[in-house]
C-alpha cells in the first residue's frame, strides 16, 4: 500500500509525521506523495482540509485518515497517544471505507472568462467587500428569494458543524446526501424579505445564486478565499464525488458532535 502524510507543520505534528513515516516504511509500505492509497493528515481539521484539496483529483483511489495534534477534530479522530496503535492498524488491518458527501460549486462568468469548478468538504461561502451581497436565489430552476445581507454559506453535512453551525444552521448527519444554505445577517424589513431559516436541499436539487449587480465576490471554498468579478451565477449541488475515510474503528458522528460541543464525558 502507498501512503502519504500531510502535517500541520508545527514541531509536534512534524515529529509524529516522521515517526509514522519511518515505521510504516519498516512495515514495507511505500511512501508516495504522488499517488497514495492512504493519506494521513496530522494536525487539525484545517490540515485535513488541506489534505483533501491536495488529493481531491484522485478521490476514488485515496482514503483519508486524520490524527489531531490539537483539540478533538471532526475529521481527525486519532490522538498522539495512540500513534503506535495507529501504525500497527495501518500496517496490519484492512480498513473499512466510510463515504461522506461533498459540495459541487461552479462559478460561471458573464462573458468569456474561465468557468471555475470546485469540490468543498466543508462549505462555500459568498461575501463581498463592496457593501451588501445582493443575489437572486433559485432552487431547482425556480426563483426562491432575493437575498440581501452579509452573505450566504452553503455547506456539506460534515461541514455543518463548522461555519454553518456558527451561523445557526442545523447539524446534518453525513449519511444524508444534502447541502444546507445558511444566511449571514440578512436584511429583513417591510421592503426586503428572506426566509431566515436554514434550507436543506436533497441531492437532486441545485441551488443557483445570481448576482444582480456588478460587485465582485469573496468566495471561500473551505479554507481558500478568492475574489471573483464578472460573476453570472454560482451553482451549488451535492457532488457526484464523495470523500472516502479509512476507518479502523467506529467513531459515530453524534459522539463526535457530543464530544466537541457538549461534553467529553464517556
Ligand atoms: P480557521 O479559522 O483557522 O479554523 C476554523 C475552526 O473550524 C478550527 O477550529 C477548525 O478546527 C474548525 N473546523 C474546521 N472544519 C470543521 C468541521 N467540519 N467541524 C467542526 N469544526 C471544524 O480556519 P481553517 O483551519 O483554515 O478552516 C477553515 C474552516 O473554518 C472553514 O471551512 C469554515 O468551516 C471554518 N470557519 C468557521 C468560522 C466560524 O465558526 N465562525 C468562521 C470562518 C471559517 P481545527 O482547529 O481542528 O483545525
TrEMBL record:
Signal peptide extent: none
One BP annotation, GO: NAD+ metabolic process
Binding site for NAD(+): 45-46, 122-123, 148, 150, 185
Keyword terms, alphabetized: ATP-binding, Cytoplasm, Kinase, NAD, NADP, Nucleotide-binding, Transferase
Cofactor: a divalent metal cation
Catalytic activity: NAD(+) + ATP = ADP + NADP(+) + H(+)
Single Gene Ontology MF annotation: NAD+ kinase activity
Enzyme Commission code: 2.7.1.23
Main location class: cytoplasm
Enzyme category, top tier: transferase
One annotated Gene Ontology cellular component of this protein: cytoplasm
Catalytic residues identified in the record: 45 (proton acceptor)
InterPro entries documented for this protein: ATP-NAD_kinase_N, ATP-NAD_kinase_PpnK-typ_C, NAD/diacylglycerol_kinase_sf, NADK
Family indicated by similarity: Belongs to the NAD kinase family.
Record protein name field: NAD kinase
Gene label: nadK
